[in-house]
Structures are given as structure tokens and as C-alpha cells.
Amino acid sequence: MRRGFGGRFNWGKRQPKAELDAQSRLLLFVQGLYLLGNAFSDTFVGVYLWKLNNDLLMIAWFFVAQYVAMALTLWIAGKQVKEGNKMNALRLGVGVAALFYLLVLLLGARAVTYILPLGALQGAADGLFWLANNVVYFEVTDRENRDRFNGFAGLLTSFSYMIAPWIAGYLITRISDPLGYHLIFSLSLGVFLVGVVASFFLKKRQAQDSYGWLFGVRQIAERGGPWGRISAAMAAQGVREGVFSFAIGLLVYIATRNEMQLGNYSLITSAIGIISYPLAGRLFERRNRLWGSLVGIVAIILAIFPFYWEISYATLLVFGIMIGVFFPLYTIPLTSVVFDVIGRDEESASRRVEYIVLREMALNAGRVFGTLVFIGVLAQEPSHPLFTTLLVLLGSAPLAAWVLLRKWLADPVDTPVQGP
């Protein structure tokens, strides 16, 4: 038996497989289509807007609008997801995503005039889809197979962002502007329509009791309750996500001025995730979450430091490779442990919609905060060292999430409850 980190790791012992049932696999398929549709164009939306108007602040405001709209949509849609047919919210999310790309196609160069409404529309699509997706995810998984599901979900993310951006970059560089961009936005539109059709094969989920509009606020305010700490941890996680989700791809394009190079970057870095995500999903025992996640967090922070030397394709590639290797160690346990807390007993599981809304709203609050800090510093035209320091500080926010969640990471929650 191989041990490390004070004997808490047990990588050598083979664990029984926690298999995924047919509905879990179908949910992964629908989620994969949504990711693929976004992967074709998401990587290049920022580049497209940059080429129309070389303004990084404008692009950051686009994402602020997206995060705010996503949070509001989550809160409002929670009632439909809990009391009605949550599959309708999932399908509507995919449909609104298709509408977003249709409008980008129709607006063309005028898209920069409608930057905030377009960002809000994409945020609404994400809010509808991910709320319904995460509720169904809770219902079709349990504590025994949750890490495995998250490993496969990460694999789909890596595969989508490995293949689709490379194809998109190839097409854009082979077809003159703006036809290349119009083609990949059309591809996204088509994939989303297939996703809507596939979602009809997911079983209709049972409706629940009435939706608590202010339930999340009461949970945060509850003295001694877990959700004050969990919400703060999710916000800390969102601080990093808010900026890094768009800044890295845009920095790659600014450094290379070539969409094919951005496609190659995504191909290389995501290919690593094809191995690392399922491997992490298989190797993680629940008792390994504490130190495994810390290793992942420290590594993704260290990955930023080469930017102090220069922000070039080479240093961005080093960053991307390290993220591909270590990001699953961070994201899989932190995702799983929160859903374990949600399912800790019957009463908590019955409020799964409200808890997931609370989780996602906290994430988006962190994303908005991190992006606003980014905008505030960027508006001052910072020097290269200051800009890198900003990325290090924002990228270190997951450490706060780890500290806040370490109780549950160290002592896994027994969650016998699985959603109906």
C-alpha cells in the first residue's frame, strides 16, 4: 500500500466501481452537448468582440452582465424547477443559448452596441441550464458515485474544449472574416438544437413542495449552520472563475494574433484533462479529499507565476498544462462535498433546489466581485507586474474556499439520501 501526506492517501488500493445508471449517462450526454455547443464558440466570443472593438474592459463588462443575469435567473427559475417540470427549464436553457448565437449572427459588427443585453441573455441560458442540470445531477447520483460522475463530466468538458475550439480555429483561419465566425456560431446553434431533442429522453422528474424564495438568506444567517461557510467558499471559488474563464483565452489570442494558435492551445491543454479528470475521479476516495484538493489548489496558483517573466504563448502554455493536470484535484472534491452536504438527510435533500440556487448564486456573486476588481485595476492601465499580481491574487481565492470547506473535506459527510 502506497501512502503519502501523513498516510491519508491510499492510491494503490483498488476500490469497487460506483457505476452510473442509464439516466446518469444520458444526463452526461445532454451536458456534453451543451458544453460542445459552447466550446465551438465560447472560446472565440471574446476574441470576436475584441476584433470588433479592442477593448478588454468592454469584454469584462459583457461577463459581468452574464454573471448577474445568471444569478437572477437561478433565483427566479428555482420556483419552476422545484414546483414544475425541471426538464422544461433545462430545455429552455439550451434554447436560449441557441437564441444568443442566432442574435450574434444577425447583429454582426453591431453586437458591440448590445454588449450588456447579449451578456445577460447568455447568463440567462446558463442559469436555466445549470440549475436544472445540477438538480437532476443530485437526483441521479449518490455519495458513492458522485466523484465518478464529476470525473466523467470533467472528461466531457476537456474533450469538448479540446476538439471544438481547434476545429473552430481552423475554420476561422481558412475562411475570411466574418464568415468563419458566422460558421462556428451556426455550428453552436445546431449542436444546441440537438441537445434540446436529446433532453426529451430524460425522465420527467417528480415535482416537490413549494419553493422558498428567501430560504437561502435564512440558511446563511443561521447561527452555527453550515451554509454560511459553504456560501462564502463558493463565492471564493467564483472569484477566480469570473476572470480566468475569459481572460486566458483572450490573452492567448492577444499574444499570438492567430485563432488557430488559440485552437491549438485549447487542444493541448484540454487533452491533458482527458487523462486527468477520469483518473482523479477514479482515484479519489472521500477520505483523500482534504489533501488532494489542497495539492490541486497550490498547483493552479503556482501556474500563474511564470507570467511575472512574460505573458507569452510559452508561459500561457505552461499555465494551461498545469491547470490540465491539477485542476481536477481541486474541482472534483469541492463540487462533490457540497452536494454531499445537501444530501446529508431527508429534510436537507427535500430542499435541494433552494440549496443549489444558493450555491450557484454564491458562485456568481464571487464571479461578479472578481471581475469588478479586474475592471477596476485594468481601468488604471496597470504595469505588467501589477497585472500579474492581480491574476495571482484572484487565482489564489480557492485557498479561502479550501479553508472554509476543510471540515467536510477532512470528515466526509455520510449522505445516504439520493433524490427521487
Automatic annotation (TrEMBL):
Its main location: membrane. InterPro entries: MFS, MFS_trans_sf, Sugar_transport-like. It is found in: Cell membrane. It is a multi-pass membrane protein. Keywords: Membrane, Transmembrane, Transmembrane helix. Pfam families: MFS_1 (PF07690). GO terms for cellular component: plasma membrane. The chain crosses the membrane at residues 26-50, 56-77, 89-108, 114-137, 149-173, 179-202, 238-256, 262-279, 291-309, 315-342, 362-380, 386-405. GO terms for molecular function: transmembrane transporter activity. Gene3D superfamilies: MFS general substrate transporter like domains. This is MFS transporter. The lineage of its organism: Bacteria, Bacillati, Bacillota, Bacilli, Bacillales.
